[in-house]
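Researcher: Here's a chain I'd like modeled. Treat it as a single chain, no partners, no ligands.
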Amino acid sequence: MTVNNAPGKIRIIGGKWRGRKLPVPALPELRPTPDRVRVTLFNWLQPVIEGAVCLDLFAGTGALGFEAISRGAARVVMIEQDQRLARGLEEQRQHLDCAVIEIVRAEALAWLNATSEVFDLVFLDPPFRKNLIAPSCEILLNRRHLHPHSRVYVESEPGVCGNAGLADNFQIHRQSQAGQVEYTLLVREEQAE
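Model: Modeled as a single isolated chain. Structure tokens:
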């Protein structure tokens, strides 16, 4: 997939850090969310991003989490297993002097099972072809990490989100595709207790 950014850089596209370019490790397995997808996503999120508590579960470059803070989110927790990427995220957090971003180096699903935090918005952009979307959503629901009407953004290969068995607990709010990337904004369905 072609990325709109120069190799080793991501660009914040809106908010207080608009236009700021952040260096990221040049790793072949990285797949930063393209600028045009982030523009669309954050247009979708504009009514709910201000003051939101966010989780970037497979943070990678941190593009989604940094963009969320730039646009007014109250807090972002970024989970990244790779030591090089986690170190890069921490360097960027320090460079931006942003205390409301927490970087955690951990395996995403293990961390999700261990925490009791609740989120307004979750970014799920796991490595492709690893079958991590359905288990992530299951843990988010079973461990009560979501409020009624929380949003979950899923970035995947085409067709994965629709086949992940999420229809009972989530409503597809918005969905689009750019090349080989399907991106979906889910809304947590309020469940009767």
